[in-house]
Specification:
The chain is α+β, with helices and mostly antiparallel strands and about 400 residues long. The chain has 4 domains: about 90 residues, DNA Primase, Chain A, CATH 3.90.580.10; about 55 residues, no CATH class; about 140 residues, Dna Topoisomerase Vi A Subunit, Chain: A, domain 2; about 70 residues, no CATH class. The chain contains 12 helices and 15 strands. The strands form 4 sheets. Strands 1-2-3-4-5 form a 5-stranded antiparallel β-sheet, covered by helices on one side. β9, α4 and β10 form a beta-alpha-beta unit. It binds zinc ion. The site of zinc ion has 7 residues, from loops.
């Protein structure tokens, strides 16, 4: 089937080179649109480079270069067919299906979906959903899922440029659907209410333009509310689309029910609204409380933790940005200049932008924040800036 072969070649070519670099990834540093550093074959300091958008590589000394297929031929010393097998493996059937073991028969399965380490691109585990003849569903994880849960599609995020658009949807099939339409999407690995959102996910998605597309039901809203809590302040913007309207008690419709094409999808993205949680009705609030109450409170500090030796190793929380990279909740900014140059206007614009999660000048709005604006005479009276509230 030549068509299938062509499809696999395309699939192989589309694999980001950065996702198959393995440990060599850490040798390279970002310079503009490229990763530059020693060649995995001939070493050196900066003779080797990968252009991230074009997904091509080059080594000046080895005089080798090209796309992902050429790279893997070069890097792993493979021939063309082996390179395709490496980059676009044919899925093997899932082992250990429970078919018949307890009198039940599974009637269909979806997956297996591969969850890859975002840095190395190596598959860490797969997830398969089974539907049984008695209506029951089951999920099979295959592979070591002992580390933190991954995002499905996360390996395609590393090294995306700032402010690239990334969709967050609910489930692998929807990620795949958006990929078919030419977009980049990720999903948690445990369905709507059980998917965990972690600081590592926020780090991976840092600086990107995130658009939620929840299923149009309550679990869908809980899913994105949990994600928003984790991502706020780290991503460039948080927006949402609800093309099927708000939850109305019916079974939610989702990305896979949507019939638009790539062009319609771009329109949908452009019209996405800044994310704000829906005013929760009682049910939603209880669900949300249930899903967050499992998080343990941080332990109270003890004396050891206050010693310098401990502080050196301390993991500081990422900054909670309010306006681009300019203002975070712990910023103190002093603006000075001659009268009439626009300090007040600039300050008010920045304040308004932070209050409404809008952009101001070149700084991107991040999340809605409470802003207190003092005019000059009052701010002089309250000048000891350290006495202003820590978080606004
Ligand atoms: Zn080389």
């Amino acid at each position: 089937m030549p068509e299938l072969a062509d499809q696999r070649i395309e699939q192989a070519r589309a694999v980001p080179i950065t996702s198959v670099l393995g440990a060599h990834r850490s040798e390279l540093r970002r310079t503009g649109a490229e990763l530059v550093g020693p060649c995995p074959n001939c070493g050196g300091e900066d003779r080797f480079g990968i252009h991230l958008q074009k997904n091509v590589f080059n080594c000046r000394r080895c005089e080798r270069g090209g796309d992902a297929i050429e790279f893997i031929k070069f890097y792993k010393n493979l021939d063309f067919a082996a390179a395709i097998d490496f980059l676009a493996p044919v899925d093997k059937p899932v082992k250990a299906l429970k078919n018949g073991a307890d009198g039940r028969h599974f009637v269909s399965r979806s997956g297996p979906w591969k969850y890859c380490d975002p840095a190395s691109g190596d598959v860490r585990y797969t997830r398969t959903r089974l539907n049984f003849s008695d209506g029951a569903k089951d999920v099979v994880f295959d592979g070591p899922r002992n580390g933190p849960p991954l995002l499905y599609g996360g390996e395609r995020i590393a090294d995306l440029g700032e402010c690239r658009r990334v969709w967050i949807v609910e489930g692998e099939a929807k990620v795949d659907r958006l990929r078919e339409l030419g977009e980049i999407a990720v999903s948690g690995d445990c369905g709507a209410t059980a998917s965990k959102w972690l600081p590592s996910h926020a780090e991976l998605l840092r600086g990107l333009d995130i658009i939620f597309w929840p299923d149009s039901d309550e679990p869908g809203e809980i899913y994105i509310a949990n994600a928003a809590k984790c991502l706020q302040g780290h991503v460039s913007s948080l927006r949402v689309v609800r093309p099927f309207g708000k939850p109305n008690g019916a079974k939610g419709r989702d990305v896979c029910d949507w019939e638009g094409d790539a062009e319609a999808l771009v329109k949908l993205a452009e019209n996405a609204e800044p994310y704000a949680p829906l005013s929760p009705d009682k049910g939603l609030r209880e669900e949300a409380a249930k899903s967050t109450s499992k998080e343990p409170l941080p332990p109270a500090p003890n004396r050891e933790e206050l010693l310098a030796a401990h502080w050196i190793r301390r993991e500081l929380p990422p900054r909670d940005h309010l306006l681009g990279a300019l203002v975070c909740t712990t910023s103190r900014i002093l603006m000075f200049g001659p009268t009439g140059i626009g300090k007040t206007i600039t300050g008010m614009m920045a304040g308004g932008a932070m209050a409404s999660a809008q952009n101001s000048l070149n700084w991107a709005g991040q999340r809605m924040a409470r802003v207190m604006y003092f005019s000059r005479p009052l701010s002089c009276a309250l000048a000891p800036i350290g006495r202003l509230p820590q978080r606004t």
